[in-house]
Amino acid sequence: MDVLKIATAGSVDDGKSTLIGRLLFETNSITTDKLEAIMASSKKKGLDYVDLSLLTDGLIAEREQGITIDVAHIYFSTPKRKFIIADTPGHFEYTRNMVTGASNANVSMILVDARNGVVEQTFRHFYISCLLRIPNVVVCVNKMDLVDYDQTTFEEIKNAFMDFAEKVRFPGQEISFIPVSSLYGENLVHQSAHMPWYNDAPLLSLLEAIPLEQHLSEEPSRFPVQYVVRPKSEEFHDYRAYAGKVASGLLRKGERVVVLPSGQETTIARIEKFGREIEAAQAKESVNVMLQDDVDISRGDMIVPLSQLPQQSRQLEATICWMDKKPLRAGSTYLLQHGVNTSRAKVSALSNLIEVVTLGADSTVSELKLNEIADVQLKTAKEVFYDSFAENRANGAFILIDEGTNSTVGVGLIK
Ligand SMILES: Nc1nc2c(ncn2[C@@H]2O[C@H](COP(=O)(O)OP(=O)(O)OP(=O)(O)O)[C@@H](O)[C@H]2O)c(=O)[nH]1
């Protein structure tokens, strides 16, 4: 069964936790003991309904204690599909979590409170969804019960959103709107009786029907080597394979390839998956690759087709989303992690600070503060073999790490 990855976003109190809780409840994804616990705490809080937001809020509390993960992943499934929701807190300063949670999402689900309409945070989340080239955006206009299920309110929000979206969306990006009430479970799994003017599918049906990305296999093929397989046993002493996950494209047996960074040419002799030979491996498949010639390969090297070589440089131009309290300044040095490779990188220039709401760009930038987005130029110590993010999501993104604290401080999308 395929898996749809959803990144959620909204401002504080838009109802994200309630929506996710309700979706889990209505798809029977909550265990009896959890449900009983939620019912008990709802009662204790004096509520006359079951507060399903307690379910995901509980996960967030667990996460905050755990410290190690920024984004909670919530799993559920229907007979048609499996779903993973990356739940990111809605607060302004947590946009960074949204960036890390959303980086390989199929869908960005953006919540809008029907009473407040489109707010700055909505623009920001949509802008980031576009930067990350998330192919589907679903805007849930929530709390429709609090605006008397009014169609005009919904249409106005939709128009305001689209006025902005038309300026930043990329070709092929799908945007849908659904009026919902998460508290009462309307238009989530079942059609709402209160909104007969809305004739499209409820949220779950829409999520079940979203096509998964097919284009990954059409991208240039990139195979980063995760480790070299050389069994110790006598019986296998000639066996040598390179294990990894195809980052993009299609890797074919018999294809002429180049090993980077060494530049040695060879041919793919055999591809194995779970010990069985296959003719080709596609994006996201984990396989062992065997080569015709004895080449020297180590972890972090990349196997690419001779006919589709990536760019190669020590100077990168990228759009950066900054995620650290300490601002980014020109001249600073970071660790740049690109796939399984790392290199030290120095910020040589900063430009075009994006004003997300007005879409203006300030060309004179001295520093980049938390949550800000701008263009940077980087000089790396090692050669980087990259594609532009627009061409190849997997090989066109990197993160910047602060060497002192070892934390991720920025996400870069290569131009
Ligand atoms: N009337 C009404 N209230 C709702 C609806 N959805 C959520 N709420 C209420 O709005 C408040 C905030 O909901 P949450 O689900 O906690 O909001 P959130 O977006 O997860 O908030 P954070 O976790 O702080 O980002 C709660 O009191 C919910 O009961 C809705 O559809 N209708």
From TrEMBL:
Domain of life the protein comes from: Bacteria
Keywords: ATP-binding, GTP-binding, Nucleotide-binding, Nucleotidyltransferase, Transferase
Tr-type G domain span: 1-215
The protein's Enzyme Commission number: 2.7.7.4
SUPFAM superfamilies, per the entry: EF-Tu/eEF-1alpha/eIF2-gamma C-terminal domain (SSF50465), P-loop containing nucleoside triphosphate hydrolases (SSF52540), Translation proteins (SSF50447)
GO function terms (MF aspect): ATP binding; GTP binding; GTPase activity; sulfate adenylyltransferase (ATP) activity
Listed GO biological process terms: sulfur compound metabolic process
PANTHER family: TRANSLATION FACTOR
Identification of the protein by name: sulfate adenylyltransferase
Protein source organism: Pontibacter virosus
